[in-house]
Design a protein that fits this description.
It is built from five helices and 17 strands. 19% of the residues lie in helices and 38% in strands. The protein folds into two domains: 132 residues, Diaminopimelate Epimerase, Chain A, domain 1 (Roll), CATH 3.10.310; 103 residues, Roll (Diaminopimelate Epimerase, Chain A, domain 1), CATH 3.10.310. The chain is globular, with a radius of gyration of 18 Å.
Length: 280
């Protein structure tokens, strides 16, 4: 067994935001992170492990703050995960009595807060709109990619390819999403969103997440879709997105893209030493 994991097992939490579900490991009391690609793959197995869309590991940050690492269910690293960030922020704010915290991620320092209505917001930072930042493999106009369907490329700490379609319900998300995920234009592969207009500032969105597949919601994907919709002149900067798991509010402000929605802490549990030994 990994020496960083105690013989008594490894505690974890199961959380979700709009059905976008996460295993959360709190490693602030340990000397180092515990998650490995093998452990992430094992835990991500919904039949033999716990199952999740992403795994988030909380680590101690500077001056009492926290840092977050994200993993996909295939064992690859994720650069950003908006709903997991909101879930962890909710947990930490309840634990500390705060209503505003800063969280260090690969995306940078993200500010999260609890609104007066109880919902949790996180500032996901400014979108990355230049081809090299997304990143793309060639110097292209990110507003009109040379892919069938004329999608938009947006970076939100991870790459996104956003398609605007007449009816998101009718799209073959698995077939198209899995193909576009590995398009050569995206050297790091990409998340894929399909969105249709339902009102002047409201969209229906479905998503294929790289390294995971179809999920009920994707926070960074909702942010990317809102940014793409505004850049195309389809909406204002403040929109509602109806995902398979519920509704997110996105507000692209001068200081970044703010995402707001509900969170849920489902249960606490402990991974057994025998299970951990088998996945080492």
């Amino acid at each position: 067994m990994n020496a960083r994991i105690p013989d008594t097992g490894l505690p974890f939490m199961k959380m979700h935001g709009l059905g976008n579900d996460f295993v959360v490991i709190d490693s602030r009391g340990r000397g180092a992170a515990v998650t490995t690609p093998a452990l992430a793959r094992a835990l991500g197995d919904r039949n033999r492990g716990v199952g999740f869309d992403q795994l988030a590991e909380i680590r101690a940050g500077d001056e009492g703050g926290i840092s977050l690492d994200f993993w996909n269910s295939d064992g690859s690293r994720a650069g950003a995960c908006g709903n997991a960030t909101r879930c962890v922020a909710d947990f930490v704010m309840r634990d500390t009595g705060q209503d505003r915290i800063a969280i260090r991620t690969a995306r940078g320092e993200l500010v999260a807060l609890r609104r007066a209505d109880g919902l949790v917001s996180v500032n996901m930072g400014q979108p990355q709109l230049d081809w090299a930042e997304v990143p793309l493999s060639d110097a292209l106009d990110t507003l009109h990619l040379p892919i069938s369907g004329d999608p938009v490329a947006v970076g939100m700490g991870n790459p996104h390819c956003v398609f605007f379609v007449p009816d998101a319900e009718a799209v073959d998300v698995a077939g198209l999403g899995s193909r576009v995920e590995h398009d050569p234009l995206f050297p790091q592969s990409t998340n894929v969103e399909f969105a249709s207009m339902t009102a002047p500032d409201r969209l229906r969105m479905r998503v294929w997440e790289r390294g995971t597949g179809i999920t009920l919601a994707c926070g960074s994907g909702a942010c990317a879709t809102a940014v793409a919709a505004h850049r195309r002149g389809l909406t204002g900067r403040h929109v509602l997105l109806d995902l398979d798991g519920g509704t997110l509010e996105i507000d692209w402000r001068d200081d970044g893209v703010w995402m707001t929605g509900p969170t849920a802490h489902v249960f606490d549990a402990v991974l057994t030493p025998a299970y951990l030994s088998a996945t080492a």
